C-alpha cells in the first residue's frame, strides 16, 4: 500500500526534475567546454592539431572547417531556443566524433593508449547524454 501523500509525490517528482536538469547542464557544460577548446585549437592550429589531421591523410585546411563547425555547433546547443537547430548540432557532433574515431582506426593511428579513438568516442557519448537529458524547453 502506498502511504505517500500527494505533497510527497509532488516533491519527489520535482526533485527528480531538478536532478535531471542538473545532470543535463553538467554534461552539456563539459561537452561545450571540451568541443570549444578542440575547435579553438583547430582554428589556431595549436598543440598537435596539425599532426593529428595530416598524419591520417587529411589536408591541413580541414582544421578550419572542423574548428568552425565545432564552435557553431556548441553555440547552437547552449543558446536558448532553436530546438531544430539543436537537433542538427547534436547529430553533427555525433557524426563528427564518430567520423574522427573511424578516421583514426582506418589509418591505424590509435595514439598512446588508444587516445585518438577513446577521446572522440567519449565526446560522442557526452553528446548523446546531453541530448537525452535535455529539458522539454530544448526539445522539438
From TrEMBL:
Natural source organism: Paenibacillus favisporus
Pfam annotation, one family: DoxX_2
Keywords: Membrane, Transmembrane, Transmembrane helix
Annotated transmembrane regions: 21-41, 61-81, 88-107, 113-133
InterPro entries linked: DoxX (IPR032808), UCP030066 (IPR016944)
Name of this protein: DoxX family protein
The keyword Cytoplasm appears for this protein: no
Entry membrane topology: Multi-pass membrane protein
Compartments it resides in: Membrane
Keyword Heme: no
Superkingdom of the source species: Bacteria
Amino acid at each position: 500500500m502506498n502511504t505517500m501523500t500527494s505533497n510527497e509525490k509532488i516533491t519527489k517528482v520535482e526533485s527528480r526534475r531538478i536532478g535531471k536538469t542538473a545532470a543535463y547542464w553538467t554534461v552539456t557544460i563539459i561537452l561545450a567546454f571540451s568541443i570549444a577548446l578542440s575547435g579553438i585549437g583547430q582554428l589556431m592550429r595549436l598543440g598537435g592539431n596539425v599532426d593529428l589531421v595530416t598524419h591520417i591523410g587529411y589536408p591541413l585546411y580541414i582544421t578550419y572547417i572542423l574548428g568552425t563547425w565545432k564552435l557553431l555547433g556548441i553555440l547552437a546547443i547552449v543558446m536558448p531556443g532553436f530546438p531544430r537547430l539543436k537537433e542538427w548540432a547534436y547529430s553533427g557532433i555525433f557524426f563528427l566524433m564518430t567520423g574522427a574515431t573511424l578516421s583514426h582506426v582506418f589509418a591505424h593511428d590509435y595514439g598512446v593508449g588508444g587516445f585518438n579513438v577513446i577521446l572522440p568516442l567519449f565526446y560522442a557519448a557526452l553528446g548523446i547524454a546531453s541530448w537525452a537529458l535535455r529539458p522539454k524547453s530544448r526539445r522539438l
